[in-house]
C-alpha cells in the first residue's frame, strides 16, 4: 500500500508540472517511474527522467533538520543510482509516511491531504562501502511540481541536478 500511495503522490506532482509519470510495473534496472515532459513544439524532443521510489515508516524528518538519513535495503539499489549516466538521469524519491495506514491521508475542506512529503536526491557519483548504504536526504529537496520542472530543465541543459 505504501508503494501505491507514493505512485499517486508522484503522479499528482507530475501532472501539476505538465508531465506524465509512467509507472514501470516490473522492476527494471532500478527504475520505478519515468517522467515524460512533452515537447513545446512537434520539432523538439520530449524530456525524460527516471526515478526510483522508496517509501518508509522508519523516518520522520524533523521540521528544522537540514536532512534525514535513509538506509537502502540492498546495495544494488544504491549502486544503480550512483553509477555515472551520460544523459537520462536517475533520482531517488523517498516518501516518509506515518506508521498507521489510516493516517496517511485526510479529507480537508477543499481537498485530500497526504500526510508527509516526498523528497528527492541525486546520487550519481556518490560512494559507500556499506552493504546497506545510508544516505543523507536534504529536507529542502521537497518533490513538488516546481522542483520537477527545475530538475528536468537542468538535465536538458546538461547541468548537475544537485545545483
Mind summarizing the main beta sheet?
5 strands, mixed
* SS content category: alpha+beta
Rg over CA atoms, rounded to whole Å, is 16 Å
Q: Count the strands? A: 9
Into which percentage range does the β-strand content fall? 25-35%
Task: Provide the low-confidence segments as ranges.
Answer: none
The rough form would be described as globular
Helix percent reads: 10-25%
Q: Mean pLDDT across all residues, rounded?
A: 90
> What is the topology, as strand order, of the major beta sheet?
1-2-3-5-8
Furnish the topology, listing elements before pairings.
Elements: H1 2-16, E1 20-28, E2 31-37, E3 47-56, E4 67-71, H2 75-82, E5 90-96, E6 105-108, E7 111-114, E8 118-121, E9 134-138, H3 145-157
Parallel strand pairs: 3-5
Antiparallel strand pairs: 1-2, 2-3, 4-9, 5-8, 6-7
Amino acid at each position: 500500500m505504501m508503494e501505491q500511495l507514493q505512485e499517486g503522490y508522484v503522479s499528482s506532482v507530475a501532472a501539476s508540472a505538465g508531465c506524465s509519470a509512467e509507472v514501470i510495473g516490473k522492476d527494471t534496472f532500478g527504475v520505478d517511474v519515468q517522467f515524460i515532459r512533452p515537447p513545446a513544439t512537434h520539432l523538439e524532443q520530449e524530456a525524460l527522467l527516471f526515478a526510483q521510489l522508496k517509501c518508509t515508516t522508519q523516518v520522520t524528518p524533523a521540521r528544522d533538520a537540514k536532512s534525514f538519513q535513509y538506509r537502502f535495503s540492498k546495495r544494488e539499489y544504491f549502486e544503480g543510482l550512483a553509477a555515472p549516466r551520460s544523459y537520462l538521469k536517475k533520482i531517488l524519491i523517498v516518501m516518509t509516511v506515518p506508521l498507521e495506514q489510516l493516517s496517511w491521508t485526510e479529507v480537508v475542506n477543499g481537498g485530500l491531504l497526504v500526510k508527509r512529503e516526498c523528497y528527492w536526491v541525486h546520487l550519481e557519483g556518490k560512494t559507500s562501502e556499506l552493504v546497506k548504504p545510508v544516505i543523507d536526504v536534504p529536507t529542502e529537496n521537497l518533490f513538488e511540481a516546481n522542483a520537477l520542472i527545475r530538475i528536468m530543465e537542468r538535465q536538458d541543459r546538461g547541468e548537475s541536478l544537485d545545483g
